[in-house]
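REQUEST ID: PR-0412
SUBMITTED BY: lab tech R.K.
PRIORITY: routine
TASK: structure prediction, single protein chain
INPUT:
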Amino acid sequence: MRTWIGRRPWPRRTIRRDLAAGSGDTDAPRRRIRSRTATPRKPRCHRRRSTMPLIRVSMFPGRDQDQKAELIRRLTDTFIDVCGRPGQTAEGVWVILEEVPPSHWGVAGQAGPE
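STATUS: complete
OUTPUT:
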């Protein structure tokens, strides 16, 4: 089998006219005849599906575990109150806390303190 890199040398929806007309060539592979007006299906990655909301927070390190737990709880409750769909529960909301050292931040074009 030959592998093509890049663009195929033939159109994607090519059909052999003799097979479409029923010429009787039974040794040739048959292809499904598709209407040119048919709308193609969307790729699987573009189909609508339910997604879990993800809240990502970047902050300086230094908070204790109780403060982080309270922040996660309040962010989740606020999201459900403001943006939640009917029947959505807290189990469907994800929160990620990222602690970034000040040396990795930049504000107004200036790097943070070392």
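NOTES: Residues 54-104 form a domain with the Macrophage Migration Inhibitory Factor fold (CATH 3.30.429.10).
REVIEWED BY: pending
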